[in-house]
Design a protein that fits this description.
Blueprint (H helix, E strand, L loop, with lengths): L11 H9 L4 E4 L9 H9 L7 E8 L2 E8 L3 E2 L1 H7 L5 E3 L2 H8 L16 E5 L8 E7 L2 E5 L1 H8 L2 E3 L2 E2 L1
Parallel strand pairs: 3-6, 6-9
Antiparallel strand pairs: 1-8, 2-3, 2-5, 4-10, 7-8
Length: 164
């Protein structure tokens, strides 16, 4: 595992985890704005398998913004996401709407501590890991916690929504 830090900037995600008393650790790295993929950049910089680092994507499912948390080693299956929440059609959300609703910038959207709590689906592959990493609320900062704690704090539904 990468070097762990005890303190991190008080992002809403970190504040939410602290308030909930959930065990977690943070991993900071120098974000390169030229890197083509935030998730792959995190995996490379931290030396953590891309299957254990999860990206937070915001989709529009039948007019309702929905968070999908999938491993950076795969991609989001929009049809599977729609099915997981009982919807018919899913498309990626407008980036400005995703930022405005979550309170985070793209590349730093965390499933935790969002401005407006959105329904969340966590890819079923997360349960294969004791811990996973998700954005801590800013580019260059990841938070590591158990998938069960992430699901409990976000109300996430587990479902196979990623494809390789």
């Amino acid at each position: 595992m990468a070097k762990k830090t005890k303190q991190a900037a008080g992002t809403p995600a970190i504040v939410a985890l602290t308030a909930a008393g959930v065990p977690f650790s943070t991993h900071a790295y120098e974000h390169d704005p030229a890197h083509p993929s935030y998730g792959e950049e995190a995996a490379e910089a931290l030396g953590i398998s891309p299957a254990q680092i999860f990206k937070t994507l915001v989709a529009d499912v039948d007019g309702v913004l929905t968070v999908a948390v999938v491993p950076v080693s795969g991609s989001l299956d929009l049809k599977a996401l729609a099915a997981a929440v009982g919807g018919k059609r899913a498309v990626m959300a407008d980036p400005a709407a995703a930022e405005r609703t979550t309170g985070y910038v793209l590349g730093g959207i965390s499933p935790l501590g969002q401005r407006k709590r959105l329904r969340t689906v966590l890819d079923a592959s997360a349960s294969a890991h004791a811990t996973i990493c998700v954005s801590a609320g800013r580019r260059g900062l990841e938070v590591e916690l158990s998938p069960a704690d992430l699901a409990a704090l976000t109300g996430a539904v587990p479902a196979p929504i990623a494809r390789s």
